[in-house]
Specification:
By secondary structure, the chain is of the alpha+beta class. Helices cover 46% and strands 13% of the residues. A hairpin with a 2-residue loop joins strand 2 (20-21) and strand 3 (24-29).
């Protein structure tokens, strides 16, 4: 990849807007233009998310999802230039400490508590059924 500081191509909104098909899909995130065509089939959220944001500024949609540090790093692969008139901000690189601190709540979320309770149910119920079955068999054989 060329040094972004010395070789920056600048695209207008109109130029970016032309790249809005599955065969040629560009998007803008934080003032930077990305050609995400090769990533269309690999995107974990499905191709529909990218197609919905094709040819436009997708910063808000990108930030709202809360992409991982790996996803943010992967964006650099698809960088093609900057949006004219924008002050391109580099995608924030999350460190392991910031990612963990930001994603780990101080108290468990209700969904996490429910998931933990569900795991206990998945373990406890079968064990109780097995215990009842063994006890029944033991008492019936005597």
């Amino acid at each position: 990849m060329a040094d972004q500081a010395t070789e920056r191509k600048v695209y207008t909104k109109e130029e970016v807007a032309k790249h809005n098909t599955p065969e040629d899909l560009w998007m803008v995130v934080q003032g930077r233009v990305y050609n995400v065509t090769p990533f269309l089939e690999e995107h974990p959220g499905g191709d529909g998310v990218l197609l919905d944001n094709a040819g436009v500024d997708s910063t808000e949609a990108f930030d709202d999802v809360g992409h991982s540090a790996d996803a943010t790093e992967l964006m650099h692969t698809y960088y093609v230039g900057d949006l004219a008139g924008a002050d391109p901000a580099p995608l924030a690189k999350k460190t392991a400490a910031t990612s963990t601190a930001a994603s780990t709540p101080a108290t468990p979320a209700p969904a996490a508590a429910a998931a933990q309770a569900n795991i206990w149910r998945q373990i406890a119920i079968p064990l109780v059924i097995i215990a009842i079955g063994l006890a029944t068999r033991y008492y019936l054989l005597e």
